[in-house]
Amino acid sequence: MTAWAQSLIRISNYEVETLQKRLAEITARRASAEMRVAVLEAEVEVELERARTDREAATMMQAYMTGWLLRKKNADGDIAAIESEEVGARDALTSAFEELKKFEHVAETTRLNALIAAGKRETAAFDEMGLRRRAG
């Protein structure tokens, strides 16, 4: 395999690995944001149950729900932003992987063409040797 092909493949592999790490980091952030939403939902369930049994908690429930809805909206917005970032990262990774495969294919084709050319040269040399023996 030629040096230029090896270099392109090495660079493409590095890009694919970098994008895989980025996607893993985005996925971890998404899981964290989803966990935050689950915690918020569990908290509101606890507060609603407490408001059913505690008169003082019931009077403050409207203010709590206003704050909770704001936090939930922010968390849902974070998840939506992370999901769109994840889609972009997946697309970039797919493109980088396709580029890597193209480079590998070109390198393999170049290698095979070099083998074919070497075989043709060898055959031509043997044919020439055969013709010389016959002529001599």
Which fold does the CATH topology refer to?
Helix Hairpins
What's the number of structural domains? 1
The tally of strands reads 0
Terminal Cα separation, in Å? 40 Å
H-E string: HHH
| Average pLDDT taken over every residue | 91
What share of residues are in beta strands? under 5%
Number of helices: 3
Helix content percent band: over 70%
Poorly predicted spans: none
CATH class bucket:
Mainly Alpha
Structural class: mainly alpha
User: Which second-level CATH architecture applies?
Assistant: Orthogonal Bundle
| Largest sheet features | none
Keywords: Coiled coil, Kinase, Transferase
Coiled coil: 16-50
GO molecular function, one term: kinase activity
Protein name: Dihydroxyacetone kinase
3D structure, described in words:
- This is Dihydroxyacetone kinase.
- Residues 16-50 form a coiled coil.
- Keywords: Coiled coil, Kinase, Transferase.
- It comes from Brevundimonas lenta.
- GO terms for molecular function: kinase activity.
- With 136 residues, the protein is mostly helical.
- It has a single domain (3-135), classed as Helix Hairpins (Orthogonal Bundle).
- The chain contains 3 helices and no strands.
- The chain has helices at 3-53, 55-59, 61-135.
- The longest helix has 75 residues, at 61-135.
- It starts with a helix and ends with a helix.
- The model has no long low-confidence stretch (mean pLDDT 91).
At a glance:
With 136 residues, the protein is mainly α.
Characteristics:
single chain; 136 residues; mainly alpha; rod-shaped; kinase activity
